[in-house]
Amino acid sequence: MATVELRFSAQPEHVRTARLVAAAVARRAGVDEAVLDEVRLAVGEACSRAVGLHRSHGITAPVSVALTEEEKAFSIEVGDSVPDPGADPADAGAPDAAGGSGAGSARPGSEADGEGEDEMGLAVISGLVDDVEVRSGAGGGVIRMSWPTADAAVRS
């Protein structure tokens, strides 16, 4: 299992770089060429969402992106450092085993202006990616997306 990790400051101009890296790594991992645009768009939405959350909450920590090539799938995790207001601070840094806020839901404490954008971004991602999971906790949130690789399609 090969992983590429990317961390960038929460600036909108860095989202393009994350999209380009994601598409290149996905291509190398064996994701079908017809799906690469979806990968690029989904990563752009997830990274833009993380950048927006960081900026609206005054967080200077970088946005993290982990691109993982598995045996039959390629997955991307985009992480932010914005704590879920409903999370137990004792769980900071621990993944939310219960699935966090769930796919398609915004964080309860997000400001009214950003909440609509948050919901729209998650809706776009859900429309682009069949396998998506959204988690949040005291240590921040993660959007995990995955796509089958060409090897997986051949074996099916």
Structure, explained:
This protein is an alpha+beta fold and 156 residues long. Helix content is 38%, strand content 24%. It has 4 helices and 5 strands. It has helices at 15-29, 36-56, 112-128, 150-155, and strands at residues 2-8, 63-69, 73-79, 131-137, 140-148. It is globular, with a radius of gyration of 15 Å. Residues 92-113 have low confidence and may be disordered.
Question: How are the secondary structure elements laid out?
Answer:
Layout: E1 2-8, H1 15-29, H2 36-56, E2 63-69, E3 73-79, H3 112-128, E4 131-137, E5 140-148, H4 150-155
Antiparallel strand pairs: 1-2, 2-3, 3-5, 4-5
Helix pairs in contact: 1-2, 2-3
The chain-level structural class is alpha+beta
Number of helices: 4
Spatial arrangement of strands, main beta sheet = 1-2-3-5-4
| DSSP strand content | 15-25%
Enumerate the spans where pLDDT stays under 50 for 5 or more consecutive residues: 92-113
The total strand number stands at 5
Rg (CA only): 15 Å
Roughly what is the average pLDDT, rounded to an integer? 83
Order of helices and strands: EHHEEHEEH
Terminal CA distance? 20 Å
Helix content: 25-40%
Q: Summarize the biggest pleated sheet.
A: 5 strands, antiparallel
Estimate the global geometry from the Cα principal axes. Answer: globular
